[in-house]
């Protein structure tokens, strides 16, 4: 991979629990790390669920290796959220990570 291919800025987010002003615990996504990535669309599909059209898009993000990444996190790219499906430390060389993530857009809300 050439370094120039890592030209898209993405942010990893972690789900955290905090206490609100009323003393209740609330979950919120918190920015964890922002990195440069190469992005490739893998495939997409449309289907019907609960009388609404659902769109599903699978995207591959390739980034430089860093520790601490797991599938409980999500990716934020250009205002769109992606749930991480799989993480692959390419050839176990600790140089690049390939992430497959799913964007699900719901219409009819």
From TrEMBL:
Family matches, as InterPro entries: Phage_SPP1_head-tail_adaptor (IPR008767), SSP1_head-tail_sf (IPR038666)
Highest taxon above the source species: Bacteria
Pfam family, one: Phage_HCP
Protein name from the UniProt record: Phage head-tail adaptor, putative, SPP1 family
Organism this protein belongs to: Sporanaerobacter acetigenes DSM 13106
């Amino acid at each position: 991979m050439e370094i120039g291919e890592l030209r898209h800025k993405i942010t990893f987010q972690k789900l955290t629990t905090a206490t609100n002003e009323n003393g209740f615990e609330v979950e919120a996504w918190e920015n964890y790390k922002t990195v440069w990535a190469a992005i490739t669309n893998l495939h997409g599909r449309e289907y019907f669920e609960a009388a609404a059209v659902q769109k599903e898009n699978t995207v591959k993000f390739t980034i430089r290796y860093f520790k601490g990444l797991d599938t409980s996190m999500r990716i934020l790219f250009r205002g769109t959220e992606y749930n991480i499906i799989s993480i692959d430390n390419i050839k176990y060389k600790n140089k690049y990570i390939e992430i497959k993530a799913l964007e699900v857009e719901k219409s009819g809300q």
